[in-house]
């Protein structure tokens, strides 16, 4: 289980990812607020993070890093038009998290084949399990 500091770091990282275009759309805000609720972060703390990012903390758990990568994939695909720079940035986030290069590429390639580019969690986990073994 991750602690509060790690949760704030995850959320801060997601906010930074969503703001790649220097704005935060309402749909992105609502998605991030939903993640904050899942992580048991108050709305006040979430709103504070919007203007005050916290330092990135590397997650120790491989499974938590996969979950965070999946959140970033979902966040990226909220926008109907995904630019090449978004894919590159997501790929780099995955590498920074310590996820396998081949697994990240496979996720990014396969997401096109799913409705709304949403890869089911079990499918995503299988991709990383195969790479991890």
From TrEMBL:
UniProt-listed InterPro entries: TerB-like
Name this polypeptide is given: TerB family tellurite resistance protein
Organism: Pontimicrobium aquaticum
Lineage start: Bacteria, Pseudomonadati, Bacteroidota, Flavobacteriia, Flavobacteriales
């Amino acid at each position: 289980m991750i602690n509060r500091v790690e949760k704030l770091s995850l959320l801060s990282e997601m906010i930074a990812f969503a703001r790649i275009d220097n704005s935060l759309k309402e749909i992105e805000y609502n998605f991030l607020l939903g993640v904050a609720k899942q992580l048991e972060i108050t709305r006040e703390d979430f709103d504070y993070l919007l203007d005050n990012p916290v330092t990135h903390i590397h997650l120790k758990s491989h499974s938590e890093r996969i979950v965070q990568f999946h959140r970033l994939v979902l966040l990226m695909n909220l926008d109907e038009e995904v630019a090449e720079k978004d894919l590159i940035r997501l790929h780099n986030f995955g590498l920074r998290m310590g996820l396998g290069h081949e697994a990240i590429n496979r996720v990014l390639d396969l997401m096109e084949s799913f409705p709304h580019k949403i890869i089911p969690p079990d499918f995503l986990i299988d991709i990383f399990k195969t790479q991890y073994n």
